[in-house]
Amino acid sequence: ITTDKSLGVGLFQAPSYRINHSCAPNAEQSFILQPGFSPRLQIQTCQNIAPNEEVCISYMDGLDASKAFRQVFLYDEYRFECHCSRCEQEK
């Protein structure tokens, strides 16, 4: 199934404690949906990641948005204030 429409939110226990949000992500997530199977999470790097470097994805679309917009969106949707390297540089 291929769709651009949001189908909901998923929590995948194994990777969820190792992958965080960044407004300058070094990885992207996608979901593999196949009838008759549980959804699967796929993480693919979008740049080289050094050993022990944190793997970060974006929790939102529209990363070209202003810092103010990103902060409001992330707080409203996920209840945290982003302090990623990009947000800290945009002070």
Description:
It contains three helices and four strands; from the N terminus they run αββββαα. It has 91 residues and is an alpha+beta fold. It has a two-stranded parallel sheet with strand order 1-4. It has a two-stranded antiparallel ribbon with strand order 2-3. The mean pLDDT is 85.
Secondary-structure blueprint of this entry?
Layout: H1 13-16, E1 19-21, E2 27-32, E3 40-45, E4 55-57, H2 67-78, H3 85-89
End-to-end distance, in Å?
A: 41 Å
Note the beta-strand portion: 15-25%
So how many helices?
3
If you compute it from the alpha carbons, what radius of gyration comes out, rounded to the nearest whole angstrom?
A: 14 Å
Shape: globular
Averaged pLDDT = 85
Q: Which bin fits the share of residues in helices? A: 10-25%
Main sheet: strands, sense, barrel: 2 strands, parallel
Record field, number of beta strands: 4
Please provide a brief summary of the model:
This protein is of the alpha+beta class.
Fill in the keyword field for this structure.
single chain, alpha+beta, 3 helices
